[in-house]
C-alpha cells in the first residue's frame, strides 16, 4: 500500500455515447463534448487545470501521433503541462495521480478515447503480441480469451451457463439497455465463447477530473477519494501463465488496500464474461458486492477508454451516494496481462 | 509536504546503428537496461517499477510493445508504465519516472526508451497518409524545413551556420563510442557540398535513422548514498504542450518551449542560463535547430543564437558546449533520442562522459521536443544535491 502524502479524489466523470461507428466524427469531435461535460460538472475550464494526461492508441486510429490532434479538443493554449500514455486511460489517471502527489499540480484532467471502428479490432489487437513467436500466428483476442475460458471450464471454475449469466447481468445493467439487450446465445465465435460472451465493438471517449485535498472538497460535496491505486504486469508468455488466475490483479489490489476493508461495489474491466470469473476470484469478491452496475465492458467497450470508464463509473456511484467504498479495475494486454486496481471512498456523512 | 530529491545513479545505452540485426527488440532494450543497472551496481530485484517510452508503435509494427517486453525489462510482478509524447517522449518518460521517486511512490525506478527503426521506414512512418496531410509532406524534414527558412529570414543568419552545427556534432560523435555515425573523414567542405534534401537542410545536416535504447536508474536520497559513482541530481524538470497548428503559432520559437525552460530554470534557481549552465544536450534533428533552440531556451537573445554557433561558443571546448555527445545529428533512435539527451546531460555532471566530457561540468540541461514543435520536455541536473 502506498502511503500517499496527499489525498486525491475523482471529482468529475463524463463519457460519450458509445456507438458502433463514428465515421462522420473526428477524434476531436468525439472528445470535445466529453471534456467540456466533465469540466462543466465542477465548473472548471481547461485553463484551470494544472496537469492533463490522456490515453489512446495509434494502432486503433491507424496513424502515427494520433493523439497530437486530439490535443486540439483540450485547447492547449497558452501551453499546458501535458502527457500521454499509449495504453488505456486508466494508466493516464495513474500518471496524473502521481503528478498531484508530487505537489506540482492540484488538479488534473484525464481523458481517453478509442475508435475501434477504424479497422478490424480483432486483427489490430493481434499486433500487441510477441512479434517473433506469437504475432505471426495472428491469434486474436477472442481466440486467446477462449483459451482462457476453456482453461477455466476445465478447472471446474465455471461453465457455459455461468458465463451466460454474467453476460445477461452486465448487458441488462448497461446504460444503453435498449441497444445492448442480452443477445441470444448465438453460435460460438470461438468455442467456448459465444457472441454474448464477447464485448461489443465501438467508439467512444471518457474524461475524469482529479483534485487534491481542499480543492476536491470545494469542487464536489462528495469526492471519490483514491485511497489506494496500484498496477502490476505479468509475463507476456501465455504458456507460462495460469490463465485461470490473475496474480497481478491480486497484488495490485493488495497494494491498493482493497483487502483492508470490504468494498460494496466493483467495476471490473472484463471484456469477456470468462474474465469476470477470473477477476472475481483474484479480488475475492463475495455475493454481497455489486459488480459492474454500469454494465462493464460487455455493455460498452471503446478500447483504450474502457478501463478509465471503470474508474469513472465507480467514482460516479460514490458521487451520488450509491457507494461508500468501491473497487475499480482496468486491464491491458492479452488475457489480463496487466492490471490496475484502485480503491475509492466517499466520506461518511 | 516535502518532495524526495531524485538522483540518477545508473546510465546505460546501446551501441547505435542503422540496423542492429544482431539483437531482437527485447535484446536491444536489455542491452541498455543491463548497462544502467551495472553502472548503479544494482540488480533487477532492486528495481521497484519500470517506466518505458518510445515514439509511434508503427515504427516496429508492435502495438504497445511494453507488454511483450515485460519479461525482458524484468518488470513481471512490478508496475510497468508506457509513455508516448511524440519526439519528446524520451525526456517525458524520464520525468514520469522521476515523479514516482519525488512523490515517494517508489524508491528506485528503471526508466528506458528505445526505437528499432530498421524494422520499418521511419520517414514514411512519420508521413501521415492522405487525407490527414497533404501528399508532398515527406518525413519530419519536410515539415521543419520551412520553419528553418523562416528563422533565417527573421534573423538574417548567413547560410553556412547549419553546416557549422553539423560539422561540430559529427566531430563530437567521434569522441562518443556509442554514437551511430562515426565519420572519421568529415570536413566542413563535405557537409557544405552534401546533397540538398529539404531546402535549406542538406543531407549531412540531417539526423540518421538509428536502432538504439537508453536506460537510467533513478533513486531517492538513500539510494544515491549507496551508489558506487557520483549521482546526477535533478534540480528541475518540466513538460509543456501546445496545439500542432493554430493561427499565431510561432514555429520558429514556440511558446511551449520558452515556458518549459522558464519553469525548469525557476525550479532550479537559474537566473542566467548562459552563465550558470555548463553543458547542454538539446534535441537538434536538423542542424539549424541549434541556433533556434539557443534562443528559445534563453541562452541567446532573439535573433542572436546563430552568432553563438558561428563564434564557436557551442563547441566542445567552447564557453557553452552544446551536444558534446554528437547529439541527435549523430544518433537518432527517435523514441530514445530525448532520453539520450537527458542521460548525456547527467553523464556530464557525473563526470562520466569519457572523451566527450566537458571540463568541470556542474550543471547541465537535457532537452527534447516533438510533434510539430509542440511537445517539450526538459530537465536540469547538477553534481550537487538540491538544497531545498
Automatic annotation (TrEMBL), chain A:
InterPro entries: Thiolase, Thiolase-like. Signal peptide: none annotated. It comes from the Bacteria. GO terms for molecular function: acyltransferase activity, transferring groups other than amino-acyl groups. Keywords: Transferase. Coiled coil: none annotated. This is Acetyl-CoA acetyltransferase.
Automatic annotation (TrEMBL), chain B:
InterPro entries: Thiolase, Thiolase-like, Thiolase_C_2. Residues 243-373 form the Thiolase C-terminal domain. Pfam families: Thiolase_C_1. CDD domains: SCP-x_thiolase (cd00829). It is an enzyme of class 2 (transferase). Keywords: Acyltransferase, Transferase. The keyword Acyltransferase applies. Signal peptide: none annotated. Its EC number is 2.3.1.9. PANTHER family: ACETYL-COA C-ACETYLTRANSFERASE (PTHR42870), NON-SPECIFIC LIPID-TRANSFER PROTEIN-LIKE 2 (PTHR42870:SF1). This is Acetyl-CoA C-acetyltransferase. It comes from Streptomyces netropsis (Streptoverticillium netropsis). The lineage of its organism: Bacteria, Bacillati, Actinomycetota, Actinomycetes, Kitasatosporales.
Amino acid at each position: 500500500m502506498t502511503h500517499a502524502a496527499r489525498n486525491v479524489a475523482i471529482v468529475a466523470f463524463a463519457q460519450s455515447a458509445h456507438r458502433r461507428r463514428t465515421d462522420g466524427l473526428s477524434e476531436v469531435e468525439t472528445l470535445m463534448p466529453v471534456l467540456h461535460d466533465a469540466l462543466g460538472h465542477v465548473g472548471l475550464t481547461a485553463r484551470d487545470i494544472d496537469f492533463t494526461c490522456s490515453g489512446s492508441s495509434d494502432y486503433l486510429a491507424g496513424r502515427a501521433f494520433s493523439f497530437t490532434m486530439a490535443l486540439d479538443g483540450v485547447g492547449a493554449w497558452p501551453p499546458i503541462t501535458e502527457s500521454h500514455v499509449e495504453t488505456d486511460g486508466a494508466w493516464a489517471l495513474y500518471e496524473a495521480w502521481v503528478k498531484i502527489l508530487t505537489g506540482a499540480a492540484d488538479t488534473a484532467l484525464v481523458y481517453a478515447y478509442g475508435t475501434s471502428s477504424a479497422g478490424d479490432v480483432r486483427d489490430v489487437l493481434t499486433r500487441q503480441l510477441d512479434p517473433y513467436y506469437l504475432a505471426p500466428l495472428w491469434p486474436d483476442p477472442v481466440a486467446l480469451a477462449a483459451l482462457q475460458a476453456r482453461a477455466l471450464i476445465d478447472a471446474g471454475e465455471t461453465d457455459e451457463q455461468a458465463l451466460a449469466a454474467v453476460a445477461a447481468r452486465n448487458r441488462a445493467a448497461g446504460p444503453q439497455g435498449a441497444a445492448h439487450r442480452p443477445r441470444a446465445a448465438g453460435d460460438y465465435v470461438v468455442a467456448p465463447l459465444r457472441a454474448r460472451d464477447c464485448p461489443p465493438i465501438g467508439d467512444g471517449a471518457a474524461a475524469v477530473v482529479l483534485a487534491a485535498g481542499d480543492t476536491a472538497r470545494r469542487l464536489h460535496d462528495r469526492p471519490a477519494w483514491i485511497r489506494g491505486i496500484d498496477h502490476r504486469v505479468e509475463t507476456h508468455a501465455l504458456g507460462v501463465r495460469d490463465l485461470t488466475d490473475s496474480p497481478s490483479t491480486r497484488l495490485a489490489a493488495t497494494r491498493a488496500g482493497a483487502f483492508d476493508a470490504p468494498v460494496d461495489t466493483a467495476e471490473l474491466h472484463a471484456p469477456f464474461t470468462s474474465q469476470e470469473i477470473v477477476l472475481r476470484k483474484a479480488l475475492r469478491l463475495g455475493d454481497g458486492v455489486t459488480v459492474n452496475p454500469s454494465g462493464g465492458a460487455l455493455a460498452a467497450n471503446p478500447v483504450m477508454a474502457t478501463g478509465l470508464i471503470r474508474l469513472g463509473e465507480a467514482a460516479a456511484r460514490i458521487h451520488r451516494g450509491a457507494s461508500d467504498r468501491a473497487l475499480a479495475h482496468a486491464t491491458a494486454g492479452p488475457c489480463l496481462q496487466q492490471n490496475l486496481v484502485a480503491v475509492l471512498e466517499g466520506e461518511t456523512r | 509536504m516535502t518532495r524526495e530529491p531524485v538522483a540518477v545513479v545508473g546510465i546505460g545505452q546501446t551501441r547505435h546503428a542503422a540496423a542492429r540485426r544482431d539483437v531482437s527488440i527485447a535484446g536491444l532494450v536489455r542491452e541498455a537496461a543491463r548497462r544502467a543497472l551495472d553502472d548503479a551496481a544494482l540488480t533487477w530485484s532492486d528495481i521497484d517499477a519500470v517506466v518505458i517510452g518510445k515514439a509511434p508503435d508503427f515504427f516496429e509494427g508492435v502495438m504497445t510493445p511494453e507488454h511483450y517486453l515485460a519479461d525482458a525489462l524484468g518488470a513481471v510482478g512490478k508496475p510497468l508504465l508506457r509513455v508516448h509524447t511524440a519526439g519528446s517522449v524520451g525526456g517525458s518518460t524520464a520525468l514520469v519516472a522521476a515523479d514516482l521517486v519525488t512523490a515517494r511512490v517508489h524508491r528506485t525506478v528503471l526508466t528506458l526508451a528505445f526505437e528499432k527503426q530498421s524494422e520499418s521506414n521511419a520517414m514514411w512512418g512519420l508521413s501521415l497518409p492522405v487525407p490527414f496531410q497533404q501528399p508532398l509532406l515527406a518525413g519530419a524534414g519536410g515539415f521543419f524545413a520551412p520553419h528553418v527558412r523562416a528563422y533565417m529570414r527573421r534573423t538574417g543568419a548567413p547560410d553556412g551556420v547549419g553546416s557549422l552545427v553539423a560539422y561540430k556534432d559529427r566531430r563530437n560523435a567521434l569522441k562518443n563510442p556509442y554514437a551511430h555515425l562515426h565519420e572519421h573523414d568529415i570536413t566542413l567542405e563535405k557537409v557544405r557540398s552534401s546533397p540538398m534534401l529539404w531546402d535549406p537542410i542538406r543531407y549531412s545536416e540531417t539526423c540518421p535513422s538509428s536502432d538504439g535504447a537508453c536506460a537510467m536508474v533513478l533513486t531517492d536520497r538513500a539510494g544515491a548514498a549507496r551508489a558506487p559513482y557520483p549521482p546526477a541530481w535533478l534540480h528541475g524538470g518540466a513538460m509543456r504542450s501546445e496545439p500542432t497548428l493554430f493561427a499565431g503559432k510561432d514555429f520558429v520559437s514556440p511558446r511551449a518551449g520558452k515556458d518549459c525552460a522558464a519553469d525548469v530554470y525557476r525550479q532550479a534557481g537559474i537566473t542566467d542560463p548562459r552563465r550558470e549552465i555548463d553543458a547542454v544536450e538539446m534535441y537538434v534533428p536538423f542542424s539549424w535547430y541549434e541556433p533556434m533552440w539557443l534562443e528559445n531556451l534563453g541562452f541567446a537573445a532573439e535573433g542572436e543564437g546563430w552568432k553563438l554557433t558561428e563564434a564557436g561558443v557551442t563547441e566542445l571546448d567552447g564557453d557553452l558546449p552544446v551536444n558534446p555527445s554528437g547529439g541527435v545529428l549523430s544518433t537518432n533512435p527517435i523514441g530514445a533520442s530525448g532520453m539520450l539527451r537527458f542521460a548525456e546531460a547527467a553523464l556530464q555532471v557525473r563526470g562520466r562522459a569519457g572523451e566527450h566530457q566537458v571540463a568541470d561540468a556542474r550543471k547541465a540541461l537535457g532537452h527534447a521536443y516533438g510533434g510539430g514543435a509542440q511537445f517539450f520536455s526538459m530537465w536540469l541536473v547538477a553534481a550537487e544535491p538540491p538544497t531545498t
